[in-house]
Amino acid sequence: MRFVKDSAKFACLFAVAGLLMLGGCTKVASPEQGASADSTLKQVLQRGTLRVGDCLTFAPFGFYNKDGQADGYDVDLAKELAKQMGVKLEVVNTTSANRIPNLQTSKVDVVFCNFTRNLERAKEIAFTNPYVVASEALLVKKSSGIKSINDMSNRTIATVKGSTNGDEVRSLNMQVKIQEFDSSQAAILAVKQGQADAMIEDNNFLAFQATLDPDLTVTNEALVPLEYNAFGVKAGDQVWLNYLNLFLFNINASKQNAQLYKKWFGTEPRFPLNPQY
Q1: Contact 71/274 with Cβ under 8 angstroms?
Q2: pLDDT at 22
Q3: In the predicted model, what is the mean pLDDT of residues 68-74?
Q4: Between 52 and 165, whose confidence is greater?
Q5: Is residue 4 in a domain?
Q6: Do residues 49 and 129 both lie within one domain?
Q7: Taking every annotated instance into account, which residue ranges of this chain make up the domain Solute-binding protein family 3/N-terminal (predicted)?
Q8: What integer is the mean pLDDT of 211-229?
Q9: Do the domain assignments include residue 11?
Q10: Is the pLDDT of residue 26 over 80?
């Protein structure tokens, strides 16, 4: 009986040893070899530079200040992100039309550019949680007599190429002419010079523009449901997306985002980031 017990014990020990040997031969993936290896997060940290695509013709979100430096609400957020990551910031001037192509071709790591989340765009890129909320209104001359979209029949509305604003105007099924421009500043100039009767854009942006020119005003209306603007990133990079969402959670919870909004827009955020349904 003792021999049988010893044999059983030996067999058991042999099996355990075999498992340990097998385990020793099994390669355990290091973080660099896991899903994070190809993440933009790791690339940014290794490179030491964060490349943020920002629309620098869209004050106060992004613009060039008197010293020729990138400045604005989105730029301040980008500076804070780079600071928390411990890397340098490179702001890449971006247009509405090339936001998605610049992400897909890795010319930028993330886009901060008044980027409205929608299902069509989500087929090509990924979005973080929202960081600012807006609706749509019209920028018009005070002398135009235009009080709302209902006064725009047979008139011209300026929009920016690559934005969702043209589609929103078309969805209203009104007899209006849509004229597209390469930048927001060009669309505003068209209104000032009489080439367009109004410009449709986020009310946050338009309210700021009206403060810069006493001849301009913004209609008091919400033309579309609330738009939740977010950071855009390349599709399929969950590690980078998770990091950015945590960054946004932290600056919202600390009220830092609200403070930056008030700095640039002169008022508290009008709409909540997390609405009740």
Answers
A1: no
A2: 42
A3: 97
A4: 52
A5: no
A6: yes
A7: 49-268
A8: 89
A9: no
A10: no
* Rounded Cα gap, residues 55 and 75, in angstroms: 10
- DSSP codes, the chain: -HHHHHHHHHHHHHHHHHHHHHHHHSPPPPGGGSGGGG-HHHHHHHHTEEEEEE-TEETTTEEE-TTS-EESHHHHHHHHHHHHHT-EEEEEE--STTHHHHHHTTS-SEEEEEEE--HHHHTTEEEEEEEEEE-EEEEEEGGG---SGGG-TT-EEEEETTSSHHHHHHHTT-S-EEEEESSHHHHHHHHHTTS-SEEEEEHHHHHHHHHH-TTEEE-S---SS-EEEEEEEETT-HHHHHHHHHHHHHHHHTTHHHHHHHHHHSS--SS-SS---
Q: How many domains is the chain partitioned into structurally?
A: 2
- Residues 6 or more apart in contact with residue 189 via CB below 8 angstroms: 195
- pLDDT at position 271 is 83
Q: Among 119, 72, 134, which Cα is nearest to 272's? A: 134
**Residue 276: inside a domain:** no
**What is the structure's pLDDT at 211?**
86
What is the biggest distance separating any 2 CA atoms in the chain, rounded to whole angstroms?
108
Evaluate whether residue 8 is within a structural domain.
no
pLDDT tens digit string along 177-189? 999 999 889 999 9
Note whether 129 and 165 are same-domain residues. Answer: no
* pTM of the predicted structure, to 2 decimals: 0.72
Q: Which domain holds residue 148?
A: 136-218
The CATH number that applies at residue 96 is: 3.40.190.10
CB 203 within 8 A of CB 168: no
Would the CA dihedral through 45, 246, 240, 162 be positive or negative? Answer: negative
